[in-house]
Amino acid sequence: MNEHDSSQLGAYVLGALEPDEAREVDQHLATCADCRAELAELEEMKEFLGEVPPEAFLEGPPPDGDLLLQRTLREVRTTAAPERRRRSRWLMAAAAVVVIAGALAGGILIGRQSVSPADAPVAGAKQVIATDGTTGTTMATTVEPRGGWSWVEVKLTGLKAGAECEMLVTDKGGKTWVAGTWSVSEKSAREGSWFAGGVLVPIDQVKSVQIRTLQGQHVVTTEV
Amino acid sequence: MWVPAVAGIVRSVGDYRSPEAAEALVRVLYAEHGRSLLAYATRLTGDRAAAEDVVQETLVRAWKHADDLTEGKGSVRGWLLTVARNIVTDRARARAARPTEVADVEERTPVEGDHSESVVNTMVVLDALDQVSAEHREVLVQLYYRGRSVAEAAKELGVPPGTVKSRSYYALRALRAVMSGDPVPARGKGEVAR
């Protein structure tokens, strides 16, 4: 090896030189402090390479692994499913608003039946229940945290059939947000009414949830 | 890089928690990294069935931690391999400890395994390897990870042995530059494949 022909050192460190070439490098290293210092640096890099398993450089899917993929997808689908139910309820709540808007315009009242009962609340959710002394309406409110917004679900008993309601969320700054409107069917008046909507208020800023008729009459309020 | 593919999926589908996005994410991860993961897990466990369980759990965790994968900008493969190794280690420890120390095993938080120091190292090194040029990475893979001699690598890569030697030297220097945060040598830039 020529003096300071450091380009041999890479292959030397990686153990890829032929035995006679490696011996030449050994001999040179014995007499050259510069190359020994450089060698130490390269060896450090080799140590780093050792942190990565050789399998890291295989590409693509495994051969004969389709069953494994299907099994994994099944597990993920099963786990992801509760989220889908929430999302579809959100869509149904949104659809209810559209129905009501159309109904009011046409002068026809379309009752909205209650949707499936709420799932177990997610982590960080708040639940409160209150009964209004005047109207006799009881409301169980669940507020679930989302990414910077909140999902509000209410279960109401004691509403009058035909009543047109809106759900209002007031934040700690005093601003009031409409989280949806609906009308109460005979069945919901009898068996209880479920409603939900989203508001662009972080959960720690949600102060209260109020139900009011579209005519502006107070029905019930829960302080969160 | 692996990251953009995953980030693209998450962005295009929106909320990866929806079953559709979750499925898309898992399919992409499986198609890109499945072979690597299963081979690694098979070597560690010495058992194909156990290895498949490990891969399944790894992909499920990847989906649950999709934020880390997409926002961290780190090597997705490094993350997956590390998690797979932790799962294997945790299971081996649990098996070894169970007869006498059931309580200890149950109390141990599995989270620890996700963020131990060697975890970071695998990811850091794979990241660094992603930042050197494809030529440099290739020669390191041949000589170090595949254990080839200079002559074998020269044949495989279709370049003279002298080129393999000098490239391996400059590859290690480039790696060192990346690891120490220095600017990558010019030819390393813009050549990042994968």
UniProtKB/TrEMBL annotation, chain A:
It is a single-pass membrane protein. Keywords: Membrane, Transcription, Transcription regulation, Transmembrane, Transmembrane helix. The keyword Transcription applies. One of its GO terms (molecular function) is sigma factor antagonist activity. It holds the Pfam family zf-HC2. The chain crosses the membrane at residues 90-111. This is Anti-sigma factor. InterPro entries: Anti-sigma-K/W_factor (IPR051474), Anti_sigma_zinc_sf (IPR041916), Znf_put (IPR027383). It comes from the Bacteria. It is found in: Membrane. Its main location: membrane.
